[in-house]
Amino acid sequence: MMISSRLCGLVFGLVSVTSATNVIHYPPKLTNLNNLTFVLNGTGAPGIFNSSITPDSEYGIYNWCNMPHVRTREYLAPSSDYTLKYIEVIQRHHKRTPYASNTFFKEDITWDCTGEGPVYYGKGTVGVTSDPTVVQWSAYTNPENPFTNSVGPGFVGSNCAFPQITTGGINDSYTHGADLRSVYAERLNLSTVLDPSTFKIRVTSNPITSQVSGGLLHGLFPDSSDVAVLIQADAFDSLSASYSCPAADSIFTAYTTGSSNWTEHLVDGAELYEELDAVSGIAENDTAGWHTSFDHYYDNLSAKQCDAKPLPCSVNDTSFCVSQTLADTVFRLGNYEYSYYYRDAFNSTLFSALSYGAWVLELVGHFKEQMAGTSGVRYFHNVAHDDSLGPLLGILQISEMVWPGMGSEIVFELYEAGPSLSNTTASTSNFFLRVLWGGQPMQTSLPLGTNNSGLLDMIPVEDFFDCTVKPGVSAVKGGEETKTNSKLVQSSLSVSNFDTTTAYGDFDLMTL
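and the corresponding structure tokens:
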């Protein structure tokens, strides 16, 4: 059923700073994931954190190490009256070593990456330049370098990059690609050799997305060995959202570090921090962010467990270790934080749209090209990060928000109704959209789908556009007002006007 555009409130766009912003925020489900009492006092991890393998009988549950994705065993195709015209996939990279900023000053274990790691080299088009020697990086330290110990040894003597995709992560990437091929190759008429006129893949400037692409593409196109990937400059990359957006930053700060709704769980978790700090050696007055969220500890502990490494012990007292119970609590807190960032906080949708609306505009542009018959691309794949999928899930207003684990994917499937349905569908264009999360239609809080159920399963694409785009908006950027034909990313979210000047002071929404 077509929905009225008045149900869709502004979440991102080129707007005058003097205008009030209508934001409709539909809250997520209340579950143990965003129930602070359970998060702090409950038991168990919120899913699998120690293996990439999910038993077939449980496939679809949360697995931080290797999230569920589209594969033949669980895939349910819509009626044969619909033809799949195009898909766009956005996924998080697969499992990796932790970021250096998330390692302890000195770890109690080693992490060896002999024979695995990132590959970097240049390549030309002719002669010897077209077949250079493969160059693989291997990290090392030299005790003669006086700056070596200024940042702490971390994993002592390690030859790994922090981060880099692990061997297990590359294997998961290959399986992910092969599973996608098993579902979409026949439906989209994809060859075993990548055809750049029908398939595109895009990465960010972070090398781990390219590392994942190598494994993924081998599974997707087993007879291809040389592939060009697309990448945008950091200054305006919509996939990583690495561009500057002070408006989004101000909104995010206001509902996190500037709000007791956020700091409550940090205060209540003080004893947990004491236990963790006693093992890690992190100072109570740390200024690197270890105590402004549980992100650092979450990454450290989960990366180790996904790679079958033990939980850490103190280097000063090896009998004092992080217990599994403590680690599980950190994992519950991490998911609680992500739910708050992107769904529970009232202004999370505005933040998500400001920070990630540019990518949605590109997505909608791809849909419209398909509908107009002006593009031959049938499949577009994006390899990104958790802070790419997080705000996208916020824009889509998923009903149950989690921290997007390794390999998390969202699939947008664009269908065209056949002649037998052309006069009976609710779509004026005859195009329909299905959005898959974890391989199944995404359940959202939006008033979309049958009976406004929020299930993004074969909804008229116009309904999606009504909640995401609007032409002819007056734009203010850098003090200059223009009339633009660009789209206005909107979302069906909460109830009242959001006055930027009243709520957050005098800042320009378009200082992006």
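(Above: one complete record from the training split.) The CA atoms of residues 54 and 63 lie 7 Å apart.
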